[in-house]
Amino acid sequence: MDYQPPPFFSRGPAPLVRLGFFACLAVLLMVLDARFRYAESLRQVVALLAYPLQRAALAPAELFGAAAGFFTTQVSLKQENEQLKAKQLLAANDVLTADALRAENAQLRRLLEARERLPRPSTLAEILYRGRDPFSRKVIIDKGSRQGIRSGQAVIDDIGVVGQVTRVYPLLSEVTLITDKEQRTPVQVLRNGLRAVIYGGGERGTLDLSYTAANADVLADDVLVTSGIDGTYPAGLPVAKVARIERDAAYSFAKITCVPTAGTDQNRQVLVLSQEMNIPPAPTETESVAGKLPKQKRAKKRE
Amino acid sequence: MAFYEQQQRILSPAKAGYMALTLVLALLFNLLPWRNVVGLPDMVALVLTFWCVHQPRKIGIGIAWFVGLVMDAGNGALLGQHAFAYAFLAFAAVSLHRRILWFSAWRQAAHVLVLLLASQLLMLAVRLVAGGAFPGLTYFAGSFVAAALWPTASFLLLLPQRRPAGMDENRPI
């Protein structure tokens, strides 16, 4: 007969067994989350638990912001007012010409029977804080699914593309900056229309124009704009400026480093653009597959 | 004869509610909108280690795993990353709890530093495999700060247990 300890000494499975079990569970979750994105519903459930804590944690910052706004001195307001007036004077000229150009552009498009680009509805959002995950470059904005934010939408500021909404909570959403290592943005060189895909550079805060041929026509100070062929970003938004080009005969690709145009680390106000709905289906696919295609493309891009 | 490096007080038993409260407060601290603060201590890891060392029968790997999951969801990190690291941390703390309590507070902190660094290394390895960017060596500063907070945290977290259950003239403790 084998010896059994009395039941009041029983402490369940050995710690090593428990560690093995929970480690396997964690690894399974991580693989599901990173590779297949099946874990989103579980994340939503757990996030619901963390949500009251998140709100409570945000309260002091909001209070501080309100207090700081209350005590803004009159001098700084006056200065800001003068600056804005000067800026408006400068901008007035551009606005007048822009109206004329828009009208002309619309007429030309109609003439070319081009698809008329509808002005996209957009939502103004404020950046609450930088994401706490030190391995990625993300920010949290104060608008969520209740305000109509959807995953995959483009986020811009007044001078260029900031990033893309990658995860949506009821009242908050998470924006992956274009400088994140996992983020890719389809771009075009403004000068000659050369298309490429730009990769985030991670913690350096720069962008890399990877897989561009060594003899490609890219020069320093070239402006890169979104190409719009992904159906996510509208075409023509400034993304980055080429900073440095290294061409090494040993490699078939040039190493092109760019700096983002938009203040990916500075601004507080951003604009979330809604998705363009009139994406034509892919031409060669059958009807059932074609309906799914844009979604798949976006999902791939987010990975 | 003194077995311990420091004098030990007889403590009243820890209440599960109090332990849960400290964990929730630590979660709240971690979820505060910190803006790029270098060397921010991971309070949840510290409190978890503390309770695993002091009350290994009431808290363990399962609870640590779940708290890590909440951290992941709240942080927008890879789901399971903190859960994995915290489960390991709890396992190490529970295995070492008899050894750690022999030492004085600062030597305990040295043990805890190693545990926290190991859990951070695990998280780093997981994220690098999953394709994250290396955040720089300042990432590890948080563990040093957390270990430096260990003596203070021990004192504060044990305060309710030091309190006598009721007023009594004749009792020495």
Q: What are the defining features of this structure?
A:
heterodimer, A: 303 residues, alpha+beta, Thrombin, subunit H, 6-stranded antiparallel β-barrel, 6-stranded antiparallel barrel, 12 strands, 22% strand, globular, disordered C terminus, B: 173 residues, mainly alpha, 7 helices
Write structural notes for this entry.
The complex is a heterodimer of chains A (303) and B (173). Chain A has 303 residues and is α+β, with helices and mostly antiparallel strands. Chain A is 35% helix and 22% strand. Chain A contains four helices and twelve strands; from the N terminus they run αααββββββββββββα. The longest helix of chain A has 38 residues. Chain B is an all-alpha fold. Chain B contains seven helices and no strands. In chain B, helix 1 packs parallel to helix 3 and helix 3 runs antiparallel to helix 4. Chain B starts with 15 loop residues before the first helix and ends in an 11-residue tail after the last helix. The interface between A and B is large, with 49 and 46 residues.
Q: What's the pLDDT, averaged over the residues of chain B?
A: 86
Helix-strand category of chain A: alpha+beta
Total tally of structural domains of chain B? 1
Distance between the termini of chain B: 20 Å
Strand content bin of chain B: under 5%
Radius of gyration of chain A: 25 Å
What's this entry about, in short?
The complex is a heterodimer of chains A (303) and B (173). Among the domains of chain A are: 52 residues, no CATH class; 44 residues, no CATH class; 83 residues, Thrombin, subunit H, CATH 2.40.10.350. Helices cover 35% and strands 22% of the residues of chain A.
